[in-house]
């Protein structure tokens, strides 16, 4: 692989050629790269220059390269190109695309354009395309391709290899082959490895594994990617309710799914609700607002409750105003402690390392961890407050009226210990309970946990202050 | 795939057989599952019952199954089993493991045990093992295997297939074959697909691709997984400084790397520093404390500064005590706004969707998003404060002394707008700057951002209150 820097230079160069309308030179330079990289360069052209130049260059690519490059472009860019080329060119691209890429493109196009394209498609394929377009988004059905090698169990290895030689070019993968019964039921799986290391006269029925793992066409893509991670497959068969083989999913498509699912989880954990896979810069301002405002609003409401709690302790506060100076520390440390625990538990739940039945062990572990952390942080604080802020405040020599010294230190440190323990227990229990009752645990991450621990922190601190200081 | 529920039942059943010492029945039930699942069941046995029973059952498995199951166990469990079986059994397992799994196991074992095992290994292999053990953790070298199919460019397809038939059983993959020059330099790559669809007398030199992507043996595993995600490979060649082929990495191992890297990123974003891949429940309490305490402490120190800022506004606060009630809302909303932005930017940086050169566009986008969000949240707040808290506090009818009404509403709402804008700009710029100067952007996530926005929030709020209310 050329280093990143070299590739950036290549992009620079090509952009310059295009800007100067040296399209042939641009094309020649482009063609020195592999199709994935050409796709990436075209993305840059589209972003930094304009649609027109992108389409000029795209049309100058050899037809077969153009189709492959097209399949690697993000769907927004595909749509832009589709709108700039002729119907004939569109038909050619759609015809030549791998079946699963074809479905992906058709899903993004406006309905009237899809109809126009489908009119020109042979009836058999049109039916298949319509079936695939109807699988729910993020289901196994929406990820699979019907282009696989299917064998019969009474074939010999020699016959199977001859068949693969004939059909192998059009199949998504040839490395796993599928053995079907008469009624299209999936009977077994045989790898190309076992075909090439066995003699030509061995029967497929002797080689095929019948104890294979499969997914259902309506399974969620997350389950599918779990299966790939667990078993390390290159491809997995997808069956319908009657156990008929309807397609296969290959590992390269799963890498994209994993990335998508991870992004969704991470964003949810920060209170961003985004169900598209549009890149940050390509998303409109209003869409960004829509993705972020709802949670900010919900959480803002929770802070109003916290504010109410503080207001109800007005008497305590106005008597010892310096208590306010320690609030950010207690609330912040509570929030951070809770979100550490929540994050660890959310991730462990996602990886199936723990489930609800472990809740007792989790609480016990978090309790011990939080007691140690709480004692350490409290002690450090106690020393700091008594030593540096003998008056009890944070900023140098205490002004008049700030004079409760050790009692304040005791209040702050006692609260700190209780808050850390409570935050860690809340942070670990909430995601587990959420999962149990069918809510995505990722929603129970930092923003949610920290707004809850804020309430707990304020109540703990104010009660303790009322008891100890006054 | 059997549904999760059925598999849980299978585990239950087997655990029961083992508890009742019906080891033969347990083994028979175990062997109905595939090796990955047997591994998972043994993990459960080890966790819920004890080491002794686990080892009894493990030893009853057929030798070849035992080796494969062993390779799927987490390394802590492998070490426990190694300590419970005889030296002869250990030697057998190590000898039979795939090369990359063998290295993984040896890395986890105590040095004296490794020496004992290596003594019995043929000299040639011992040298190779030592080379592999010396590659840095998380480098391409530590992930690769030397078991690949290597061909010469003057072979014919027929000769190549005959060679694969002979060697294919011991190779990690046969689906990508590597063509080497005399000096072990990597010359090209040829897929098994192109071998089986071409005629026997075609020369390898005509089929091989010479424009292949490769990684260097010291590249970080993150770069390797980026290459897999980008190009959708099944395997990637690893070369040394002289461009000699030293091994290959297959996609199934990359799925584990992606999971590991994602976990590390997510944990870092919540202020948990964990460089092991031990599961949550298997990690000791002290280790959990060590992973979490440092960041909590660092952040606690930042809150002390925030506390100091508050203390310096003591005059303002003691005059209008109800200002305190709005602090959690302003600080909390600031923190949440900032962490939304930081999370989106950190993820976009990780996926290479944006880089430092986009910083202007990012700031402009965040500015517009934050102005809209800030105005919406401020307006809602203004209405609420004027309507529900005419006295200016959060809790019902305002007690004596809380009576600055509309000016307080203006202070809170004006601060809210400024805080949201500042938080979103800080949240987006900081991760980009961090990456630019070589710090992991994941460290600039929620805890860090929210402790910074806390300071900004308090200063903004207090200054505005001093100006407007007094």
Task: Give me some keywords for this one.
homodimer; 470 residues; mainly alpha; MgtE N-terminal fold; CBS-domain; Tetracycline Repressor, domain 2; 3-stranded mixed beta sheet; 22 helices; 65% helix; 6% strand; elongated; magnesium (chains A, B); cell membrane (chains A, B); magnesium ion transmembrane transporter activity (chains A, B)
Main pleated-sheet profile of chain A: 3 strands, mixed
Gross geometry of chain A: elongated
According to CATH, the homologous superfamily of the largest domain in chain A is SLC41 divalent cation transporters, integral membrane domain
Strand order of the biggest β-sheet of chain A: 1-2-3
Number of domains of chain A: 3
Question: Total number of β-strand segments of chain A?
Answer: 6
Oligomer: homodimer
Pair with the biggest interface = A-B, 120 and 121 residues
Mean pLDDT of chain A: 87
């Amino acid at each position: 692989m050329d280093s990143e820097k070299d590739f950036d230079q290549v992009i620079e160069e090509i952009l310059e050629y295009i800007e100067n309308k040296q399209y042939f030179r641009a094309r020649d330079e482009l063609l020195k790269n592999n199709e994935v990289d050409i796709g990436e360069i075209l993305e840059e052209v589209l972003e930094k220059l304009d649609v027109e130049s992108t389409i000029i260059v795209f049309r100058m690519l050899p037809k077969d390269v153009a189709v492959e490059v097209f399949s690697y472009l993000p769907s927004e860019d595909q749509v832009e190109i589709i709108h700039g080329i002729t119907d004939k060119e569109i038909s050619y691209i759609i015809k030549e695309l791998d079946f699963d890429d074809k479905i992906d493109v058709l899903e993004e196009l406006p309905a009237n354009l899809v109809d126009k394209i489908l009119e020109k498609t042979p009836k058999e394929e049109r039916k298949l395309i319509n079936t695939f377009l109807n699988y729910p988004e993020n289901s196994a059905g929406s990820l699979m391709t019907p282009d696989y090698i299917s064998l019969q169990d009474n074939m010999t290895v020699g016959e199977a290899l001859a068949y693969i030689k004939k059909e192998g070019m059009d199949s998504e993968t040839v490395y796993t082959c599928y053995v079907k019964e008469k009624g299209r039921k999936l009977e077994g799986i045989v790898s190309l490895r076992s075909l090439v290391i066995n003699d030509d006269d061995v029967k497929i029925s002797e080689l095929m594994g019948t104890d294979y793992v499969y997914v259902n066409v309506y399974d969620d893509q997350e389950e599918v990617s779990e299966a790939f991670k667990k078993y390390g497959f290159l491809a997995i068969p997808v069956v319908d309710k009657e156990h008929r083989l309807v397609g296969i999913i290959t590992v390269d498509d799963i890498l994209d799914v994993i990335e998508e699912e991870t992004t969704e989880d991470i964003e949810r954990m920060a209170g961003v609700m985004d169900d598209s896979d549009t890149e940050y810069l390509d998303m409109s301002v209003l869409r960004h607002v829509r993705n972020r405002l709802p949670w900010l609003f919900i959480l803002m409401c929770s802070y109003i409750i916290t504010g109410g709690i503080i207001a109800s302790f007005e008497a305590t506060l106005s008597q010892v105003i310096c208590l306010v100076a320690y609030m950010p520390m207690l609330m912040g440390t509570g929030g951070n402690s809770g979100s550490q625990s929540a994050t660890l538990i959310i991730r462990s739940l996602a990886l199936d390392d723990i489930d609800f039945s472990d809740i007792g062990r989790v609480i016990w572990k978090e309790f011990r961890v939080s007691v140690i952390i709480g004692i350490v942080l409290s002690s450090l604080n106690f020393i700091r407050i008594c030593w540096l802020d003998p008056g009890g405040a944070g900023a140098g020599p205490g002004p008049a009226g700030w004079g409760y010294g050790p009692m304040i230190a005791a209040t702050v440190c006692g609260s700190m210990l209780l808050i850390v323990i409570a935050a860690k227990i809340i942070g670990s229990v909430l995601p587990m309970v959420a999962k149990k009752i069918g809510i995505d645990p990722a929603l129970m991450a930092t923003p949610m946990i920290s707004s809850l621990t804020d309430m707990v922190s304020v109540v703990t601190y104010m009660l303790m202050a009322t008891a100890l200081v006054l």
